[in-house]
Amino acid sequence: MTPAQLRGVAWEQVCRHIDGLSIGTTMVALHRRDVLARLLTDEPVEVQELARSVAANPGYLHVALGLMANQGWLVPHAPQGSVDTLCYLPTRHGRTVITALAAPYASATTFLPLAQRLGQVLFTDRDREGEQELAAVRDHMRAEWRVPGDFRPVAPRLQVLAHLDGHITAPLMAHLARHGLLNADTDIIPFAADHHANPRALRTACEILAHHGWATVDDDIARLTPLGTVAAAYARQYWHPVSYLPALRNVDHLLFGDPAAADAVPDEDAHLDRELDIVFSGDVFTATCREPFLDVCLPLFDEPDLDRQPALVVDSGCGDGTLLHTLHTAIRDRTARGRRLADRPLLMVGVEPSPVARHITAERLARAGIPHLVIDGDITDPDRMARQLAGYGLDAADALHVSKSVIHDRNFRAGRPRSLPDTARPPRMLRFFADSDGQAITPDAMARDLAAHFHSWRALARRHGLVVIEAHAPDAMRAAMLNGTTLATDLDATHGYSRQYPVEPQVFAWAAEVAGFRSVRHHDLGTANSGHTMLTIDHFTTREER
Predict the structure, then answer these.
(1) Is 317 a residue whose pLDDT tops 90?
(2) Distance of alpha carbon 184 from alpha carbon 489, whole angstroms
(3) Geometric angle at alpha carbon 349, from 348 and 355, rounded to 5°
(4) Does domain 274-418+448-542 have CATH number 3.90.1640.10?
(5) What's the pTM value of the predicted model, to 2 decimals?
(6) Closest C-alpha to 169, from 123, 233, 235
(7) Where are the domains of the chain?
């Protein structure tokens, strides 16, 4: 195969593995509760009515059916003129999956407890039961999960088999990448006893890679194939769904239990591995967003009049501090302000609700010798953040406010900006969301709440604006068309079940505009691999004079 063909094949394998981990528990829950059978009609099934008939929480049922639509198994349909009703009708392949291929997902999801402790199995010698389970997964893959080889049509069979494999392949690749075993400098994975704590488990893991055509296995080593070398380069993409394994394992309860019970758990990060999520976010910024982000920000620090430059940078949802560290270093090395930092220092402020992230950010900036302040806060409440900064003698209105993929993680407040007339209609979305009670949030309500969020930042953005990096998923019809090249199902599953609210790029732009912002610098990212905009970067300024 040519290099381009290798990239295409490996990327499709990775996407389908991630799709499988993202949708597996959903398929099991819907199958067990007889929801799938109720979709086998000749007329579109209305979601609210379906939720009532199976005693499901409608908001999360919208999320679940949206994932099936992303896979090309359901087609969404909204009655003419309706903004609060959504229906689904199964496709031909969807009927095949529902009737003949849904049951095997239960076998794959039984290995999710192993997936969560896979690092222990691979890199310690304390989990012999885990070793045996890993070997059982390998055998299931080799037996193609007992799906008959002569099953027709072929396409949904191959799609589902890749999904089933993904339940262990995804965490396996995530751990191998995190432990440095998928190294760009070598195609060899050794499993000698003096090199890794559990050579037996690592050998089994490499036999799983061999099943995908990614490796060949000898006595003491595995060697990556050309296809495996490309897959290894994509391995960090697995970090995101793996970090959300706790949430994905809780899908049945979210769909059919009491969603409020999850909020009663004292651990605010019970739905995800926060440390891994933070690492993934920083990695995405470095690999994908760094240069376009700097392209947006650095001109602000080349303003000849230093009094017109930001006095500080505030990153709401600062994660591991990568963005603040990167920006300060670039300002120091590449701008007029950098040449004056001795007499005009630039304070970098991290605002973050997670104690884990606050600690990581503070350590990172301190090691780099960067002037910094890290405080507890949330992008949903800019006024509280401004009061906190005022307590340190800092003016939040004299900051450049930046954020990466946190606006969709705000609290939903059903807000409406005062400047938004009733007649202002957002672009149409066939996407509903779940609130804290599991009820459905309509697309119109979500778009207006997003506009209200932007409006709440106007006072702090009048001088220097907002630089926003935001994640987006395509609508379900486009996701289905791009299935095998997009990670939309992962985004919709992990965010939908944890009550985060990404919207399509045109809806995001509409919300900013009706709230009184305009984008003076813009980048679209992600289309090369996925075929749609995965991330946008904007410098939003208000329409008022500074």
Answers:
(1) yes
(2) 28
(3) 130
(4) no
(5) 0.93
(6) 235
(7) 3-260, 274-418+448-542
